[in-house]
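User: Predict the complex with 2-carboxyarabinitol-1,5-diphosphate.
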Amino acid sequence: MDSYLHLGEPVDPDKYVVCKYRVTTDLPMEKAAEAIAAEQSTGTWTGISTLDNDVFTRLGARVIDISGDEIVVEFPTEDFSIEVGAVPQILSVIAGNLFGLGSLKGVRLEDVTFPKEILDQFKGPKFGAQGIRKALDRPEKPLVGTIVKPKIGLDPKKTAQYVYEAGSGGLTNSKDDETLVDQAFCPIEDRTVAVAEALDRLESEGHRMMHAINVSTRGDRIVELAEKVQSWGARELMVDVITCGFGAVQALAEDPSIKVPIHVHRTMHGAFTKDPLHGVAMLPLTKLTRMCGGDALHIGTLGVGKMTGSSKDDGNLAACLGDDVPYKVMMPVCSGGVYPGIVEAIVKKAGNDVQIQAGGGVAGHPEGVRAGAMGMSQAVDAAFAGIPKEEYAKTHRELAIALEKWGSK
Ligand code: CAP
Ligand code: MG
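Assistant: Here is the predicted structure with 2-carboxyarabinitol-1,5-diphosphate placed in the model:
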């Protein structure tokens, strides 16, 4: 039997799923790379009599490159399900057993690229960034949003009041927090109806806004819940992709009865994205979320906000916006410890095709939610116009108060 090592051969992204892994091991790197290629394709820990040469050659993973602690492994498309868009099976090949291999101290999936044959199995976002912008009548400026805070505890009426104040302060988006779905203190039906009324009221006053209702629930119920939430007036849905699974995003995006965009949260991702030497980087997750139909996805604050780990730009922005895949653009969402003083820094890094949102940075404003929303909106307006925030704050007091309270970067 040949080896899984094909070092120096050209990578063939048209025929193979190409993965980049970072490996920490006491083994020689070739041995470690072979162990990964074997475990994830045709092999196991020992030679086996049932593996013939034909299967090995056709389906065996191929280690194409080893540079320092980074290895490139390509998997033949034939290793993947013929079932269209089968993410669980894809993940068990590219990000499965290898993480538990005792011979490796650490292994991290850094990136993956899929050949056209697999990309074409997926539909991508139904609305995408452009669809969201169109619904909000906001063609160019960054979207600016909030997460209703406290995370849990407000009743439907208070939630709707928060949304109304946020909208009257100029925000284009708001959303449930990831831990709020359908608790007794804030039933999802009552919340959705109350928020819909607040959004209608804002619209009658000339301001368009979306609020994403969190429908994260059991796999067998999520589409049904989303349909109900939509019938109660939701203009956007939210789903926690890691806890619900990529199939949940796909089920919502591909269901013809769902006619509103899907905001994708990534709660729990830190469990495997945060360690630089072990786990899965955000980038593969971003690519898969766009493939599965997320219209907007949290990508962190590019090293500026409160969350650590993969919050610096490690390709996620490009994976949301790039035209190298046959899908609509997915709106990148910068969230986590955002306040007006860091908006300029985020826009400088991310550009204008972004949704910037703040929970504490709105609800924590000394003059309340409406003023907090005004502070955030003013910060975005200043960044969009290229006017330094300190300059803009001279004529915009809500921004000035926010800068005084939280400072800036
Ligand atoms: C932001 C947030 C989001 C984080 C998650 C929160 O609130 O609602 O869940 O953005 O970060 O609860 O922290 P604040 P990430 O604005 O009050 O920080 O998307 O990076 O995982
Ligand atoms: Mg949150």
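The CA atoms of residues 18 and 188 lie 42 Å apart.
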